[in-house]
């Protein structure tokens, strides 16, 4: 993904059992093209070998401040000043204490003192240590200075007890890095996104639905959060993990989605309806499993709520964006929906195009505007498409 390619990341690894997870963090960052410079403390090296980080990052690992050879090749001040973001994962109580008190007695602490880039601290330690007043006050001090904190999570700890102290999941740390590196162009905005299909039950074991995976809506939610928006995601049933930092409301039916969205609409600045809402539901839901029989071959349906149409009626100052999923007459159908539903723009999806629409990680869309302008966007990942959509929403606020 574009946000991490060629970005310079300083990764500080300190001495905790979770140091092995920093290897995976390095691998994921390097996979996305980031330039990761690892600094290890002496106790960090007791848990994992610098060589492993060197192989995964493709760069020499900084360890000893007074090592003449390393210092002449990569000075600690250079390492500190070239970084665009510094991440300390895992961060022990010791490094947290040193940072909160301005101590610089090894490579990592001196580099961090000289580093003016945003810093992300990812604590991992025993629960009692984490809850210790000194550690809590040190962390509060760091946060008040602008440090970002990710985790710790609760769960089984290496010391055999349960509680707060596990290193945050590595993908959450990556997402935080992405967010810190992204311009906060949606800061202060309240955003509502819908995603996924809805399910309309026939009986307790069957339902009407569609193959929407939710990927487009989740990408929209992730990208908006990265840009600093406060995001609510109303999602139908999907197999996707909740996006980090996003408030998720899970629903099943069109009726539930309608209720959740209309309730939230008044509090938000923009709604993007990416959900594939079922247009019909069975008129009655059978209490028990419907048995097969020759006189039971048709199904009586009724229309569900057209949520977006209703939002178009309720619209006040909000920006309203819809999708149009089509298999024929893409532009005509999308234009009709744009007007009927009172939208600011509509994102039209030709479901017959390879790599576009339901289930895929990519999409190819056309954006239609009320003034008649039509924009064809090339096939891109759903995250890139999401970025294009938010760029256009931001542009509307600027005009
Ligand atoms: N939509 C909605 N409520 C519905 C159906 C659709 O809010 N009951 C929204 C979708 O989230 C999408 C837009 O309306 O943003 C267009 O959805 P689409 O399925 O393409 O069109 P429909 O309006 O359902 O019309 P048709 O099925 O006839 O194409």
**Mean pLDDT across all amino acids:** 94
Shape: elongated
Structural class: alpha/beta
Largest sheet: 8 strands, mixed
Task: Give the low-confidence spans.
Answer: none
Helix content: 25-40%
Layout of secondary structure:
Layout: E1 8-13, H1 19-31, E2 35-40, H2 44-47, H3 50-57, H4 68-73, H5 76-82, E3 85-91, H6 93-100, H7 107-114, E4 119-123, H8 127-131, H9 133-144, E5 148-149, E6 153-156, E7 162-166, H10 170-181, E8 190-195, E9 200-203, E10 206-208, H11 215-226, E11 230-235, E12 247-250, H12 254-265, E13 270-273, E14 280-282, E15 301-303, H13 307-314, E16 319-326, H14 330-340, E17 345-350, E18 362-363, E19 365-368, E20 374-376, E21 380-381, H15 382-398
Helix pairs in contact: 1-3, 1-10, 5-7, 6-9, 11-15
The structure holds cytidine-5'-triphosphate.
Residues 254, 273, 275, 277, 279, 304, 306-308, 322-325, 337 line the site of cytidine-5'-triphosphate.
Question: Could you explain how this protein is built, in words?
Answer:
The structure is a single chain. By secondary structure, this protein is α/β, with parallel strands linked by helices. It folds into two domains: 8-181, Flavin prenyltransferase-like (Rossmann fold, 3-Layer(aba) Sandwich); 190-280 and 300-398, CoaB-like (Rossmann fold). The protein has helices spanning 19-31, 44-47, 50-57, 68-73, 76-82, 93-100, 107-114, 127-131, 133-144, 170-181, 215-226, 254-265, 307-314, 330-340, 382-398, and strands at residues 8-13, 35-40, 85-91, 119-123, 148-149, 153-156, 162-166, 190-195, 200-203, 206-208, 230-235, 247-250, 270-273, 280-282, 301-303, 319-326, 345-350, 362-363, 365-368, 374-376, 380-381. Strands 12-11-8-13-16-17-19-20 form an eight-stranded mixed sheet, sandwiched between helices. Strands 2-1-3-4-5 form a five-stranded parallel sheet, with helices on both faces. Helix 11 crosses helix 15 (382-398). The protein is elongated. It starts with 7 loop residues before the first strand and ends with a helix. The relative contact order is 0.09. Bound molecules: cytidine-5'-triphosphate (CTP). Cytidine-5'-triphosphate binds at residues 254, 273, 275, 277, 279, 304, 306-308, 322-325, 337.
């Amino acid at each position: 993904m574009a946000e991490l390619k060629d970005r310079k990341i300083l990764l500080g690894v300190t001495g905790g059992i979770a140091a092995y997870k920093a290897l995976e963090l390095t691998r994921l960052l390097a996979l996305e093209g980031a330039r990761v410079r690892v600094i290890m403390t002496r106790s960090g090296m007791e848990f994992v070998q610098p060589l492993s980080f060197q192989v995964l990052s493709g760069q020499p690992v900084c360890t000893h401040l007074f090592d003449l050879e390393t210092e002449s090749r990569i000075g600690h001040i250079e390492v500190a000043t070239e970084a665009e973001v510094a991440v300390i994962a895992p961060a022990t109580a010791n490094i947290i204490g040193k940072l909160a008190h301005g101590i610089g007695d090894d490579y990592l602490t001196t580099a961090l003192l000289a580093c003016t880039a945003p810093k992300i601290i990812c604590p991992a330690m025993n629960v009692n240590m984490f809850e210790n007043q000194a550690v809590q006050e040190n962390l509060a001090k760091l946060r008040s200075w602008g440090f970002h904190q990710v985790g710790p999570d609760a769960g089984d700890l290496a010391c055999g007890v349960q509680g707060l102290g596990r290193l945050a999941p590595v993908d959450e740390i990556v997402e935080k890095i992405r967010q810190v590196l992204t311009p906060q162009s949606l800061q202060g905005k309240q955003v509502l996104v819908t995603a996924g299909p809805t399910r309309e039950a026939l009986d307790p074991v069957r339902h009407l639905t569609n193959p929407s995976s939710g990927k487009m809506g989740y990408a929209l939610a992730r990208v908006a959060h990265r840009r600093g928006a406060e995001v609510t995601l109303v999602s139908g049933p999907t197999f996707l993990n909740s996006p980090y930092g996003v408030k998720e409301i899970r629903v099943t039916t069109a009726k539930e989605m309608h209720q959740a969205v209309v309730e939230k609409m008044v509090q938000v600045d923009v709604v993007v309806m990416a959900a594939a809402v079922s247009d019909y539901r069975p008129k009655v839901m059978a209490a028990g499993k419907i048995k097969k029989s020759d006189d039971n071959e048709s199904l009586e349906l009724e229309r569900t709520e057209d949520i977006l149409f209703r939002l178009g009626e309720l619209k006040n100052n909000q920006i309203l964006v819809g999708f149009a999923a089509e298999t024929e007459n893409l532009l005509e159908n999308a234009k009709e929906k744009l007007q009927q539903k009172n939208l600011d723009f509509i994102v039209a999806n030709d479901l017959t195009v390879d790599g576009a629409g339901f289930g895929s990680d990519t999409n190819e869309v056309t954006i239609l505007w009320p003034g008649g302008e039509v924009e064809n966007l090339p096939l891109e990942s759903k995250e890139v498409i999401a970025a294009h959509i938010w760029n256009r929403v931001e542009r509307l606020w600027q005009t």
